[in-house]
């Protein structure tokens, strides 16, 4: 009978996972190497913002069902939910997974269930985790330990709901491991729980996000093509998506988060010669921050000592998640430009969680020549035109998310999918100033 669950890693996935198991009645130990996180959780508080999470965690801690520590303890189920970032060469860094497995070895008992939820390259269970457990003396083929891979499939902002209601994939090292691990999830998951082999589950997780990355790359490439041909890409997408079998995603300043921006590289790492489309899609999406920055530079090229307001640093709307955020990449590209002043506003990100200075909305817009919308927060979609007219020196907006809907003759809004007009405007201003300069030179010569 399963009573105790140990969750290794208390980040965006681990903490909500620990919370829902505790709410379901299990005795859950959350483990993290960060003492600050453990201390915060022990007090019934949370270190990440997620809808409904604070209430569930507080109640679970108060009831004694959820505890936290820096090391594991004997349990019936061990769930590994640690991060797997990429190295500088875009290969997977699975050091945290290896360390997590090592940390539970002294506590394992026959019949325990070990589940890896961390996103990993295909073959990691077979090539990395299995040898570690076998070296410790466990015969996995005899199911001494039930080992499985069960990837998370959630979106920030709705994690608690999706952990419970989404379909889950459980890939077992053996058929029995898949079955036993699936029983664990069926106690808390209302969605369907599918049983398969570990490698298929690993690849399914990666392909879910790769599919989205490729689709976004198609939209971003359309933006570049449309600019050259002077076509409105947003209108093209709207019309094309009226087809019953077409669903082009929305373009933007790039792709962020720990899933879509990272997972495709795990496939490329294992099959570089075969994953050509996947690699090209990554290259296209990785080019978008530079594309955005170049157009910001264009829009302020005729202004002396320009001031730019960047609105949003999170990688997605209504979230404080800055992992792999293209908005931060845009900021870093712009701050290297000479003479530019930048103020940044994001209503979701706490200053203590980022080493980039944030200001209020009014201060960000005050005397600004250009406002660049980099995240589609719901607050941005509700902006009043007077906010820009009242605060900005020149009320011009570069909307990289197609989320601003303002109809006012006093504001100029340039959309990422329709930038030819912005280019022509800047060229005309520069030409006009050159003509004015020539006229003034002639007058000086006459005098």
From TrEMBL:
EC number: 1.1.1.336
Tree of life domain: Bacteria
GO molecular function: UDP-N-acetyl-D-mannosamine dehydrogenase activity
Domain UDP-glucose/GDP-mannose dehydrogenase C-terminal: residue ranges: 309-406
UniProt key word Oxidoreductase: yes
Signal peptide: none
InterPro entries, per the entry: 6-PGluconate_DH-like_C_sf, NAD(P)-bd_dom_sf, UDP-Glc/GDP-Man, UDP-Glc/GDP-Man_DH_C, UDP-Glc/GDP-Man_DH_C_sf, UDP-Glc/GDP-Man_DH_dimer, UDP-Glc/GDP-Man_DH_N, UDP_ManNAc/GlcNAc_DH
This protein's UniProt keywords: NAD, Oxidoreductase
Transmembrane intervals: none
Family: Belongs to the UDP-glucose/GDP-mannose dehydrogenase family.
Protein name: UDP-N-acetyl-D-mannosaminuronic acid dehydrogenase
Lineage: Bacteria, Bacillati, Bacillota, Bacilli, Bacillales
């Amino acid at each position: 009978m399963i009573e105790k669950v140990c969750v290794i890693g208390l980040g965006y996935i681990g903490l909500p996972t620990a919370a829902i198991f505790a709410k379901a009645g299990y005795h859950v130990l959350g483990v993290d190497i960060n003492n600050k996180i453990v201390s915060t959780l022990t007090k019934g508080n949370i270190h990440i913002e997620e809808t409904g999470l604070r209430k569930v965690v507080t109640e679970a801690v108060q009831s004694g069902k959820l505890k936290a520590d820096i090391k594991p303890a004997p349990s019936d189920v061990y769930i590994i939910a640690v991060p797997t970032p990429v190295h500088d060469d875009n290969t997977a860094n699975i050091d945290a997974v290896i360390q997590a497995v090592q940390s539970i070895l002294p506590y394992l008992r026959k019949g325990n269930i070990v589940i890896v939820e961390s996103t990993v390259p295909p073959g990691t269970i077979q090539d990395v985790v299995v040898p570690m457990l076998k070296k410790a003396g466990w015969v996995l083929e005899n199911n001494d330990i039930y080992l499985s891979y069960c990837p998370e499939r959630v979106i920030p902002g709705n994690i608690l709901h999706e952990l419970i209601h989404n379909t889950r994939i459980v890939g077992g090292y053996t058929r029995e491991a898949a079955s036993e691990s699936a029983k664990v999830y069926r106690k808390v998951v209302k969605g369907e729980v599918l049983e398969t082999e570990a490698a298929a589950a690993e690849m399914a997780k990666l392909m879910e996000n790769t599919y989205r990355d490729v689709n976004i790359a198609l939209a971003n490439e359309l933006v570049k093509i449309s600019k050259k041909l002077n076509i409105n890409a947003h209108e093209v997408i709207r019309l094309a998506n009226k087809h019953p079998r077409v669903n082009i995603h929305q373009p933007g300043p790039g792709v962020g988060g720990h899933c879509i921006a990272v997972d495709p590289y795990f496939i490329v790492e294992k099959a570089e010669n075969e994953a050509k489309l996947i690699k090209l899609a990554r290259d296209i999406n990785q080019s978008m921050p530079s594309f955005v920055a170049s157009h910001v530079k264009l829009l302020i090229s005729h202004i002396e000592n320009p001031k730019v307001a960047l609105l949003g640093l999170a990688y997605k709307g209504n979230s404080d998640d800055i992992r792999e955020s293209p908005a931060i990449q845009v900021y870093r590209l712009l701050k290297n430009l000479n003479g530019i002043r930048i103020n940044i506003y994001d209503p979701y990100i706490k200053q203590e969680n980022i080493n980039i200075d944030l200001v209020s909305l009014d201060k960000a817009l005050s005397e600004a020549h250009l406002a660049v919308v980099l995240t589609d927060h719901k607050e941005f979609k509700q902006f009043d035109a007077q906010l820009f007219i009242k605060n900005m020196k020149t009320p011009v907006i570069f909307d990289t998310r197609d989320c601003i809907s303002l109809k006012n003759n006093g504001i100029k809004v340039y959309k990422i999918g329709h930038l030819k007009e912005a280019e022509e405007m800047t060229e005309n201003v520069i030409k006009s100033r050159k003509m004015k300069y020539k006229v003034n030179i002639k007058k000086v010569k006459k005098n």
